[in-house]
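Researcher: Before we compare anything, I want clean individual predictions. No alignment, no superposition, just each chain on its own. First chain goes here; please echo the sequence and then give the structure tokens.
Model: Echoing the first chain and its structure:
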Amino acid sequence: MVDVFSKGIPQDITQILKSRDMRVREQLILLKKLNNNQSLINAKLNIPGPIKNNAYLIQVFYRGLKRFLQESKVDYRLIWDVATGPEAFLILDGSAKDSKQAAIEFEDNDNLGRLFDIDVLTEDDGVPHPVSRQDFHQVGRKCIMCDQPAKVCARSRKHSVKEMQNYISELINKNVELL
């Protein structure tokens, strides 16, 4: 079995916050490009610990993104391969509502989808605003390890980073033939 987290450049909170600021700027630019029946998607991996990107995680990202987009018409695609993790900015044909429903289906039911955080964004007073699962009367995401609410496990630190990384490595090894 390949240890998915054996390589990579550790990231700290400063780098992650800087990446978040760059992400918001890009989202604002792209929201202004949307036509009436288009939606803006920001897809990234939800990876615990300091290693957020390496050759293995890139493979998972592209494989999962391809699965998510298999029935979508993509009008615009920008991929960031940055140390804080790969990200995709996509403009898709279709409403934000339809895109969010597809994202929920993928995140909840695809083995690789469990590793993704797919935001569908709208603009609210000049600020990118993610469409929420609650807007569709959906419960929040479940923990990848124990099916409890993910926010509860994260706040309480129920699972160690190492436990989550081991679980994710096993999941990836079962679902992706790593090069």
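Researcher: Okay. Second chain, same rules.
Model: Second chain and its structure:
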Amino acid sequence: MANRPRGDAPPAGAAFLLPQLGAHAADRFAERIAPLGLAPRHVGLLRWISHNSATTQRDVATAFGVRPSRIVVLLDELEELGLVRREVDPADRRNRAVRLTTQGRRALTRVGQAFLTHQNDLLSALTSSEQATLATLLARVAEQQGLSAGVHPAYRDDHASGHP
């Protein structure tokens, strides 16, 4: 049985399998997007900015639950890659508006293609119906745990020493 360690130990429970698969999935996804010059920490931020076009650095920091200085570092990286631009917000000159560039939108399209390949490979042991059920169940657990939809917990300040 593939899920059994050595001997007569029982199969690992969901509380073990979730982080085991999560770490495996994160590593494989990072490998898939590395040729694009991106890391997972960039992808979540690009995706969020693309869905929140009228956003500021402060909005991003609030949504991700991190210090603004953490977002500035990530935005510096994305700006250096030509994927985002920051402008003085005409409504409030104290804020910097964040926008995807054309290159950023193209990169996000390529990331989306890599993600679909990644998801198909990762979940190939399941039927499409089972995949939908799994996604529904995991979303329910994430909501019950108070996790922000679409924001990976690795962005939070208490995990900022790692690489989101």
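Researcher: What stands out in the second chain?
Model: Confidence is low (pLDDT under 50) at residues 158-164. Additionally, The first strand starts at residue 55 and ends at 56.
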